[in-house]
Amino acid sequence: MILRNIKSLECPICGCSTIIKEEIDVFCGKVSVHCNGQRWERRTFLCGQEINWIPNFEREEIHKYNICTFNDAYKDKQRKILASKKAVKDFIDTLDIDEIRRSSWKGSIY
Ligand SMILES: [Zn+2]
User: Fold this and answer.
1) Whole-number pLDDT of residue 74
2) What string of pLDDT tens digits covers the 110 residues of the chain?
3) What backbone phi and psi angles, to 5 degrees, belong to 62?
4) Nearest of 48, 44, 55, 41 to residue 20 by alpha carbon
5) Cα–ligand 1 centroid distance for 18 (angstroms)
């Protein structure tokens, strides 16, 4: 696929240039087109960073949630998630419940 508007060929955070996915918006089998004639486009790099073309503003934007895994904010978020999971599992260990339920509850935390 050739994207018309997104020109970035590498992640703006880490410089990764391996493109793993490119998409355009489609509705009812037809390419969605803004009233200015531009399409909504997305490009994703191997590091996880997604770039979007926003036709309303005629510019590229860095996706808020599908972000570079080498981004410090992403690493910090993952560190907090892991610490929270451990805290929940430690709390489950303190509960006066049978081992099967304890194991089941802890197993449901990924
Ligand atoms: Zn990246």
Assistant:
1) 87
2) 789 999 999 999 999 999 999 999 999 999 999 999 999 999 999 999 999 999 999 999 999 889 999 989 889 989 999 999 999 999 999 999 999 999 999 999 98
3) -80, 130
4) 44
5) 10
Both tokens assigned to 76: 């910090």
How many A from CA of 64 to the centre of ligand 1?
Answer: 13
| Torsion (CA) 39, 46, 86, 106 in degrees, nearest 10 | 80
Distance 76 CA to ligand 1 centre (A): 15
Parse the chain into domains and list their residue ranges.
Answer: 1-70, 72-107
Ligand 1 centroid to residue 14 C-alpha, Å: 4
Give the Å distance between the CA of 97 and the centre of ligand 1.
44
Please give the sequence-ordered ranges of beta strands (E in DSSP) within the chain, or none if there are none: 19-24, 26-27, 30-31, 41-45, 50-54, 59-62
Rg value, the chain, Cα: 21
CA of 2 to the centre of ligand 1 (A): 21
